[in-house]
Amino acid sequence: MRLFALLLLAGASLAHARNPLATKDQCEIDVLSMELSKDPAFEPLKKDALDQYLKSLKAHNVDVTDAIMKDLHLAMEELVFSSVQKAANGDPTHPKVYWTDTAARRHDWFGLSVPGGRYSYDNPDCIYRIVPISGQYKYKLKGRRIGKGTTDASFSLISNVNSQNTISTISKKDLKVNSDGTYEITINSDDGGENHLKSDWSAKQIFIRHNLGDWNQETPDELDVEVLGDPKPWFPRTNRSIINDAKDDLKQSTFFYGFGALDWKTLSVPLNHLKNPSQSQSLGTLTSQASSFGHFNIRDDEAYVITLSGGNSSYWIVPVTTMGLLTNDPEHNIVSFNSVQSASNNNGTYTFVLSAKDPHVYNWISIAGTPQGTVMLRWQGLPLTDGTPKGVNVYTQVVKFSKLHEVLPKETRYVSDKERKQQVRERLQGYQRIHFQ
């Protein structure tokens, strides 16, 4: 009865929606996920996940403070919800386009207050949407680009919903779009021409990314999916079967994120350094993406300075995350900068300051409340390589806050208190433009 009432409330609000993310399918799966995530069967698995994250932190001698524990508990809540979301939209015979891996929408998302479902280095710029598929069937993904589209976009066919393992992909530059903004992507095991994702027996999901460089101007594409023919599920899908699928996903997520991403990829890097960028097909990364991982521990009188070059990438981002691998309230805090938002140096590089205190540098990322954290830099739109992308570099140093001016480029852009408030206000407006409609 409660589920039906929530759907009615969401449906009434949808009648006035203009956000391409605010679809009937989105609201129905949100409601179902919210209901199923309350099942007590997830509690022991949530504890197992927390134990794995703590094991990884302690293996690398991280001081697990009360603040870190608070971040971890939030991360576990979101990890559980993310697994339920993936399972709730897990039927390849009745696929839906569903927005996932995003922060909580507590501000009345069309009559709903939807929990966060982020995991393993969420990106505040990115609208992630998933479509379940099977290599047995044929599908059409229909889209409409709004205006010039987003700074970057990609459609990846993957064989594992956690580690990814890309089978085929279409990037924004390769996507053929009609003059009215519409396009159609075919997904099946046949050889195809343009706008085709060739699937095989291992295909499980289409993982769609729309990266917004300008939060106040760019809008993710409208998307809808159709499965051809009239396939039937092998067995009836019930709430209990969805919960069981979510439990299996949570067990897998615990390994891939609590060990793979946190321990192997991140904490193995020396403290206050960033690993040389590399490309990979697995562990949640895009094949045309280079990534650099690291973790930091910065005192109040210190600053962590990161300088990068974008190379031939079409988009990049510098986000700061907690030890739970989540951004800290991206709606209200400056926790990231991307290739559109950032002020450049004269030589084309970009320098960022991570500190608890505001240095009045335009490219400042606040780590207030998160003195120990993690970083995953991303560069997207790169040509496929042997794993070592050319022209993409990153350099780091830790300096005393009082000595910051000695290491920053002379042309560094500074801001006043008034300008900082305006910068924060514009980011907030851009964030709410997509998440609040």
Model description:
The protein has seven helices and 21 strands. By secondary structure, it is of the alpha+beta class. The protein has a domain of 166 residues: Jelly Rolls, CATH 2.60.120. The strands form five sheets. Strands 12, 13, 14, 16, 17 and 20 form a six-stranded antiparallel beta sheet that branches. A five-stranded antiparallel beta sheet has the order 1-4-10-6-7. Strands 9-8-5-11 form a four-stranded mixed beta sheet, with no helix packed on it. Strand 6 and strand 7 form a beta hairpin. The two termini are 27 Å apart. InterPro entries: DUF1214 (IPR010621). This is DUF1214 domain-containing protein. It comes from Malassezia equina.
Percent helix: 25-40%
The third-level CATH topology of one domain is: Jelly Rolls
Could you give the count of β-strands? Answer: 21
Mean pLDDT: 94
What is the topological layout?
Layout: H1 2-14, H2 24-36, H3 42-59, H4 66-88, E1 98-100, E2 105-109, E3 112-114, E4 126-132, E5 139-144, E6 152-160, E7 164-171, E8 182-188, E9 196-198, E10 205-211, E11 222-227, H5 239-267, E12 273-274, E13 278-279, E14 290-297, E15 302-309, E16 315-321, E17 336-338, E18 350-355, E19 364-366, E20 372-380, E21 393-400, H6 404-407, H7 417-435
Parallel strand pairs: 8-9, 18-19
Antiparallel strand pairs: 1-4, 2-3, 4-10, 5-8, 5-11, 6-7, 6-10, 12-14, 13-14, 14-20, 15-18, 15-21, 16-17, 16-20
Helix pairs in contact: 1-2, 2-4, 3-4, 3-5, 4-5
Task: Describe what is shown at a glance.
This protein has 437 residues and is α+β, with helices and mostly antiparallel strands. It is built from seven helices and 21 strands.
